Amino acid sequence: MLKKIAHLLLGFSLATSINAYAAENTLVAIKTDLGTFVVEVYSKAAPVTAKNFLGYVDAKFYDGTIFHRVVPGFVVQGGGMTFDFAEKETRKPIVNESVNGLKNDYKSVAMARQQDPNSATAQFYINLQNNPGLNATETKPGYTVFGKVVAGMDVIEKIAQEPRGMYKAFPEAPNYAVRILSATRTDASSLDALIESQNTPKPSSIKDALVPINDPQ
Questions:
Q1: Which of 22, 98, 183, 201 is buried most, with the most CB atoms less than 10 Å from its CB?
Q2: How many Å apart are CA 30 and CA 60, to the nearest integer?
Q3: What is the pTM of this model?
Q4: Are 208 and 49 in contact (CB under 8 A)?
């Protein structure tokens, strides 16, 4: 009974926080092989980066891509490669907005890039802890945070726990691809059912695997 109440309170808390931000920011539901998580996109704080990310979402670019880099205790990264590690063609790189005041803290979503600060295209990552080393300083640019996971962080944690090491060329990739099945804009009213369904304990399917035993005559 206490566990059920805790699930209800958690769902209410998430729904309340999402409704509080939905009027100002854009919500994106990202469905994966391991469940769905929701990103709140900060269009005012990171206008160029947010527009770029939402453009890829609207173009269905992320659908079918994988999380190809998983570093437990650091980040989960994806959004640029297919299951066979082919890199998708992207649009032009965007300007770095890492001085927008948003930090690479736990649950935050940021753009991956190369050494050039202005080289981010489509790949993004979710921080698995506070990573201050990825933030901008007075002497160097950082990695642009443009959103935060506001529901389904447990899905990201599941991805972080996937076994890795099967592929020598991609040692940080999960052994079995975790795909983005879809990435779509959503709203607060559509998330209540999602939160409830993912917090509801799934019934065991063990009975489906049992061989029936005939009663002795």
A1: 98
A2: 11
A3: 0.81
A4: no
